[in-house]
Amino acid sequence: MTLATAHNGTFWKHLRTVMLATVLLFISGVLSYISFFTMSSTFWVFIIAYNYVNTFSLMLGSMSIYLVLMIDYHTLRGWQSLDDVMFYIRGACRAVEFIVTLCMCGYIMMTFYMEMTSAAGIVMLAAYTYYCIVQRGGKGWKIWMMRRQASCKVQSLPRATKEDLRNKSDLCPICYQMMESEVRVMHCKHYFHENCLKKWFYIQDKCPLCYAQFQSVAF
Ligand SMILES: [Zn+2]
Ligand SMILES: [Zn+2]
After folding, report:
1. Percent of the chain having pLDDT more than 90?
2. Cβ pair 145, 107 in contact under 8 A
3. Closest ligand by atom to 214 CA
4. Is residue 128's pLDDT more than 80?
5. With 90 as the cut, is the pLDDT of residue 185 above it?
6. Does the N terminus or the C terminus of the chain have fewer Cβ atoms within 10 A?
7. How far is the CA of 140 from the centre of ligand 1 (A)?
8. Is the ipTM value over 0.90, yes or no?
9. Tens digit of each residue's pLDDT (9 = 90 or more) over 74-89
10. Measuring CA to CA, which residue among 202, 177, 83 is closest to residue 191?
11. Could you tell me the sign of the dihedral formed by the alpha carbons of 16, 19, 21, 27, in that order?
12. Nearest bound ligand to CA 207?
């Protein structure tokens, strides 16, 4: 991913990194399959399979992001939806990790219930479940909601017309790129790219130029 954003790697450097990632993806995929479908279902096999699946999901996500960044750099240049696409890829990886973790917690609970019930084991399980489900799941949900709120705020602002943009002929104050399309107007009459504003509202809900508090503008 760093290689894709740095834009200074040689062809062989890219090839070596992609090949290494492909090998890791293939090995983790094969080992996940073997663990789940050919080995007997024991506690430790499940723990190992959990790590293989997480590695597979992580490698798949990293390779997808690498591919998207390379497409943006070599063909699209300044793809407006790049940030959204990367967010959804990362979100999908986190969702897979969360679902696998949920399954593992369920399996561990069942094992504890059927095979042993020491107080220490129950405390350990409760702590692990809290960390995995409440902490990580809660954090993921919070990020998702913040993103959704930022998107709703941007959607509530009016779009600049082509005539507006022609008359204004200005750069976006956030990314310093020309504002030619997908531009929104804040109630303070400042113009920004839709996606730039979305990223900004993710951090704070004030105008990036005059710091006026965000207000939804009636159409
Ligand atoms: Zn911009
Ligand atoms: Zn403003």
Report:
1. 11
2. no
3. 2
4. no
5. yes
6. C
7. 26
8. yes
9. 776 666 677 778 888 8
10. 177
11. negative
12. 2
Structure tokens at 60: 């798949």
Calculate how far, in angstroms, residue 192's C-alpha sits from the geometric centre of ligand 2.
10
| Tokens (6 digits) for 6 | 């740095």
CA distance 29 to 187: 51
CA of 83 to the centre of ligand 2 (A): 23
pLDDT band at 190 (very low <50, low <70, confident <90, very high): very high
Q: End-to-end distance of the chain based on CA atoms, in angstroms?
A: 41
User: How many degrees, rounded to 5, is the angle at CA 125 between CA 119 and CA 128?
Assistant: 140
CA of 165 to the centre of ligand 2 (A): 17
Ligand lying closest to the C-alpha of residue 187: 2
Which residues make up the environment of ion ligand 1, defined by Cβ < 5 Å? 172, 174-175, 193, 196
Would you name the residues annotated as active-site residues?
172
Per 3-state DSSP, what percentage of the chain is helix, strand, and coil (rounded to 5)? Answer: 70, 5, 25
Could you tell me the residue ranges of all domains in the chain? 2-115
